[in-house]
Write a structure and sequence with these properties.
Layout lengths: L1 H15 L3 H4 L8 H18 L1
Helix pairs in contact: 1-3
Length: 50
């Protein structure tokens, strides 16, 4: 149940949120909101794969 929720959330994130890796954003120079969004997406992906 939990994994299905995160898989759906990951698909929604992929459609709605920007991808910083495709835009070539350097994470060392990223702003705080970009880092927070990146961390959120990584957290969702990690939980979707467990």
């Amino acid at each position: 149940m939990k994994q299905q929720f995160f898989k759906g959330l990951a698909k929604l994130n992929k459609k709605l949120l920007p991808s910083f890796t495709k835009k070539g954003v350097d994470l060392a120079k990223a702003s705080k909101w970009q880092l927070a969004l990146f961390a959120y997406r990584m957290w969702v992906t990690k939980n979707a794969l467990d």
